[in-house]
Design a protein that fits this description.
Layout lengths: L1 H5 L6 H18 L2 H7 L14 H13 L2 E10 L6 H16 L12 E2 L5 E10 L4 H14 L7 E5 H36 L6 H23 L6 H30 L5 H28 L7 H32 L22 H11 L1 H16 L20 H10 L10 E5 L5 H9 L4 E10 L2 E8 L6 H18 L4 E3 L1 H35 L3 H29 L8 H31 L1 H28 L7 H33 L31
Helix pairs in contact: 2-8, 2-11, 3-8, 6-7, 7-8, 7-9, 7-14, 7-20, 8-9, 8-11, 9-10, 9-11, 9-20, 10-11, 10-17, 10-19, 12-20, 13-18, 13-21, 15-16, 16-17, 17-18, 17-19, 18-19, 18-21, 19-20, 19-21, 20-21
Membrane topology: Multi-pass membrane protein
Pfam family, one: MMPL
Subcellular location: Cell membrane
């Protein structure tokens, strides 16, 4: 393996590696794979539903009855104190103008529906959609350009399920460019601080950008085999590539600098660095990829799609850092570090000196007291989980003002709040349709039930809810409506529509969390057992990462509520946070403990722990800051879920970097001693220095 890892740094191989990467990116560009990757993303909630969800079956039945899938576009006209005759004339003129337009796949707008209090009126039409974003965006934008915000004191907003979808699509369409620019700018800034070289920072940055381009290109091919991808999952993949890729680069470059202080030959230094750091990078990447692949077990298609997409991103980042980066290092050599060029014989940061060495020695004086106090601190931080709320819904998920939400608020002042997105009820037995309608209408919280269509699957009813269709109160009504409908019409009755879709998604997310978290823990534990060839150490590392996750999510829940004032969190947030924090957090423990094991073979557990901390402390801390920073960039996006996810992971990575990896893990290892390697031979051999094997020979670079 070491010879294979050293191959890209060879005197001739380095040019071949660079040429292969450049050729691949040229081919991807010519085939327009990155652009196609953007075009195939699906950002509507219905595309995420599991096939066995009742909402999915209801959606299929509605399509059959209507002959197509439609979404409602609703223009809300409102004047406090009552609509004037001039307002009503304008509404009529708007309707006439809208119906004279060639709005493809849009039904004519019906006569305005006035409210009982006279303050508002609605113009409603249906848009036929086939999943293509433009079938919704173009009609909504055209209608808004005509009716929204007229002068004269009347408020007009365009909402409905089409309005909500259009606003979400616009945000997701702009996410990738904004996110990529912000993340690359941040990585550039952090690399400049870390390396303090105007030249060298471009080497890892260029490698990361190559990896990002390649991952998006290959990601398009995943959609061709049926993987569901949305703007949210593609954004997270970009962050994973940039964050994890930069982490791997920092680890490899740190080892490269060590080797440049030992060898004059840049090829030998690059080869040795790749051979020494490569196994830890591979173990880290494989751990993250396996954890992400566990997401494919999710019922929610969007969550399941993130699994292979995220794993792809991490895998491409790993390959780039083990091939392209060593090749570039071998090409540029030590002069690229100017003005801080590492020379042969320089002391640098080694295992016998530095602040991390002193920190390890301080922990070694009273390790038990330190790990107990640190663990208690994390437990106290975890108490914030008592404040965790799942009050975030599609209706309150935007940061800032969007027109669909404003329109929903106007509508709710004069109509039942669920008027713009009714709940669909499919009754197979036409004879029981009236009984079902009466039973559903009797459910507290249902404003009205009306016929909406008849077809081969049965009768379609539309139930208008008193609450916003995207409010938790409405989600709570769905089980009651289903019970009433099935009691009156039989178990074959289906309840769907926007509210039921969101409710089923939330239920599936909760189920996914309960299923996947234990599986991820087991997978990561097995990887650690194989890597460290021990059982005690992997169990300890897993426990510390779980504690770090609980503390991070606990503090985050308090921050969301008290500082940000967010309405709550999405039910899927704990799952995403857990997978990323466990998978990425274990990275740093892998980097640390792999080096500790290497040092333990020579110096024993106590000295090996301190020496491992001394040589990895700086690079792992830098990597943690970079990864936290890249995830924090998610906070620049106008969606509360992504802001919360970015904060939770960024904070969790910092907790893991500065508290767990630098203090808790070393204290535990120093307190337990060589038994931490049980049942391997290291747990039984003499301590320290009784067994000092010969140093491993340098790896000669390939010709």
């Amino acid at each position: 393996m070491k010879k294979l890892l050293a191959l890209p740094a060879g005197r001739r191989a380095k040019w071949i590696v660079v040429a292969v990467w450049v050729a691949a990116l040229v081919i991807f560009s010519a085939l327009q794979f990155p652009t196609k990757f953007e075009d195939v993303q699906k950002n509507d909630s219905a595309s995420f539903l599991p096939s066995n969800a009742e909402s999915t079956k209801a959606l299929t039945a509605v399509k059959t009855i209507q002959g197509e899938e439609t979404v409602a576009i609703v223009a809300v006209y409102y004047r406090d104190g009552g609509l004037t005759p001039a307002d009503k004339l304008l509404i009529a003129e708007n309707r006439k103008e809208l119906n004279s337009l060639d709005l493809a796949d849009t039904t004519p707008f019906a006569r305005a529906v006035p409210s009982e209090n006279g303050n508002a009126a609605l113009l409603v039409a249906n848009i036929t959609t086939n999943g293509d974003a433009n079938t919704i965006l173009k009609p909504v934008d055209k209608v808004r350009s005509i009716v929204s915000d007229p002068s004269g004191g009347m408020e007009v907003k365009v909402t409905g399920s089409a309005g909500f979808s259009a606003d979400a699509i616009k945000i997701f369409e702009g996410i990738n460019g904004t996110l990529l620019f912000a993340a690359v700018a941040l990585v550039f800034f952090l690399l400049a601080l870390i390396y303090r070289s105007p030249l060298f920072l471009w080497i890892p940055l260029l490698t990361v950008i190559f990896a990002e381009f390649a991952s998006r290109s290959i990601g398009y091919l995943l959609t061709e085999v049926g993987v569901t991808i949305n703007g949210q999952s593609s954004s997270i993949m970009s962050i994973l590539v940039l964050g994890a890729g930069t982490d791997y680069a920092l680890l490899l470059v740190s080892r490269y600098r060590e080797e440049l202080r030992r060898h004059d030959d840049k090829h030998l230094a690059a080869a040795n660095a790749a051979a020494a750091a490569g196994p830890a990078i591979i173990a880290s990447a494989v751990t993250v990829m396996l954890a992400l692949f566990c997401l494919t077990l999710a019922e929610v298609n969007g969550t399941a799609g993130l699994g292979p997409l995220g794993a792809l991103g991490v895998g491409v980042a790993m390959v780039a850092m083990l091939t392209l980066l060593p090749a570039l290092l071998a090409i540029t050599g030590r002069r690229a570090f100017w003005p801080f060029i590492p020379r042969v014989g320089d002391l640098g940061a080694d295992a016998a000196h530095g602040k991390w060495r002193r920190w390890g020695e301080w922990i070694g004086k009273r390790p038990r007291a330190i790990w107990i106090v640190t663990a208690l601190l994390l437990v106290v931080m975890s108490l914030g989980l008592l404040n965790f709320s799942t009050g975030l819904t599609q209706g309150n998920s935007f940061r800032g003002e969007v027109e669909s939400v404003q329109g929903q608020a106007l509508l709710a002042t004069s109509f039942p709040a669920g008027e713009n997105a009714p709940t669909d009820i499919i009754v197979p037995d036409k004879a029981k349709a009236k009984a079902v309608a009466a039973a559903v209408a009797a459910v507290p919280g249902v404003a009205a039930v009306r016929p909406a269509g008849v077809g081969p699957p049965g009768v379609q009813l539309a139930a208008t809810l008193k609450y916003s269709p995207y409010a938790t109160e409405s989600y709570a009504l769905i089980p009651k409506i289903r019970t009433a409908a099935k009691q009156a019409g039989g178990q074959q009755v289906l309840v769907g529509g926007p509210t039921a879709i969101e409710r089923d998604l939330r239920e599936a997310s909760t189920r996914d969390t309960k299923l996947i978290i234990p599986i991820v823990l087991l997978v990561v534990l097995l990887v650690l057992i194989v890597l460290l060839r021990a059982f005690t150490a992997p169990v300890l590392l897993i426990l510390t990462v779980i504690l770090s996750f609980a503390a991070s999510l606990g503090v985050s829940a308090v921050v969301y509520d008290v500082i940000f004032g967010f309405p709550g969190s999405d039910p899927s947030l704990p799952l995403f946070t857990f997978v990323f924090l466990v998978a990425l957090g274990i990275d740093y423990n892998i980097f640390l403990m792999a080096r500790v094991r290497e040092e333990t073979l020579k110096y024993g557990t106590e000295r090996g722990m301190i020496r491992g901390l001394a040589v990895t402390g700086g690079v792992i801390t830098s990597a943690g800051i970079v990864l936290a920073g890249t995830f924090a960039v998610l906070g620049t996006l106008p969606l509360i879920f992504l802001t919360e996810l970015g904060f939770a992971i960024a904070f969790g990575v910092l907790v893991d970097t500065f508290i767990v990896r630098s203090t808790l893990v070393p204290a535990l290892v120093l307190d337990i001693g060589k038994k931490v390697w049980w049942p391997s031979k290291l747990a039984h051999e003499g301590e320290p220095g009784e067994h000092v094997p010969e140093a491993e020979p340098d790896v000669e670079p390939a010709a």
